[in-house]
Amino acid sequence: MPSIEVGTLGGGTILEPQGAMLDMLGVRGSHPTNPGDNSRRLARIIGAAVLAGELSLCSALAAGHLVRAHMAHNRSQPPLRGARPLHLVERPRLLASP
User: Fold this and answer.
1) CB–CB of 49/58 below 8 Å?
2) Quick check: 28 and 12 in contact, CB under 8 A?
3) CA nearest to 29, candidates 11, 8, 15
4) Where are the domains of the chain?
């Protein structure tokens, strides 16, 4: 990820859930001796998580697991014959008030 903006101080970091996550990752606030180190570390953590998700998705696609999961979770039904897409279905018209 060539450019990612993150913050470990101010803004939404004062909110309890966000602060708790930053504490858990050990990056809350400014680094005591090297300003910016906590933000750089958080950016690396986010980049690693995104990369892991992309690798997982690619492997699921390559192995056919993604398609099988969609088929298993009721996405296996073909469209009904004669069914029209929702944007083509006529909607009832409201009567105009006098």
Assistant:
1) no
2) no
3) 8
4) 11-77
Q: Give SS3 for 63.
A: helix
pTM of the predicted protein model: 0.65
Query: pLDDT truncated to tens, each residue of the chain (98 aa)?
Result: 678 889 898 888 889 999 999 999 999 999 999 999 999 999 999 999 999 999 999 999 898 888 888 777 765 566 566 655 555 555 555 565 55
CA distance 41 to 25: 9
| Alpha-carbon gap, residue 32 to 22, rounded angstroms | 15
Cα–Cα nearest to 13, from 50, 44, 38: 38
Give CA–CA dist 59/84, Å, rounded. 35
Taking 3-state DSSP, the helix, strand and coil percentages for the chain, each rounded to the nearest 5, stand at 55, 0, 45
